[in-house]
Amino acid sequence: FLVVDDSIRRASYPAVLQGLARAARSLPEPRPRQLLQQLCSQVQGGARPHLAQLLAVRSSFSGSALVLSGLQVDHVRALSRVLFLTPHLPAVLLRHRLLSHVLEIRHLDRALLRLGLGQLSEEELRAACYLRGLNSTHLGQAECGAWLEQWLQLSCELQASEASLLAHSMVLLSLNYSRPSE
User: Fold this and answer.
1) Is the per-residue pLDDT at 181 higher than 60?
2) What is the tally of structural domains in the chain?
3) N or C: which end of the chain has fewer CB within 10 A?
4) DSSP 47
5) Which residue range forms the structural domain that includes residue 75?
6) Interval 145-176: pLDDT, tens
7) How far apart are CA 61 and CA 53, in angstroms?
8) Is residue 181 part of a domain?
């Protein structure tokens, strides 16, 4: 079932990336716009983003066109499918549910960081990765741990106002994870 669910989730990834690239074009400042467009192009080209690249664009995800309440409805629907939320609700409810779920994951991330990844069984580690967008069925425990550690570094660095970046990172960090890093 995980493989089927993941294929449904992954079918939304191109729409999320296209929506993000489209929203990036509307950013008023040239430097963040360029960094985000470059990030989208790299991920669409098969590369994995580095944590520093994601943190470099974080300011664009709070108080701009990239905040969850400012995204186009089709973009919010695609992000909702990534989180396995029904996309068939009015836009205001979709945005509210999406924000609520992302903030809940962020809260869980802080608790998980305090607990320590070493306390997780392999099954718990894989479930934690899956909740955050990574299909870990074909990955080893070390790869899952490395990915989750990177995710936690990002999540715990971000503020609640940057929840949109965390939602997009479910796609950005997991899309090409089975491929070698560039």
Assistant:
1) no
2) 1
3) N
4) P
5) 1-175
6) 999 999 999 999 999 999 999 999 999 999 99
7) 13
8) no
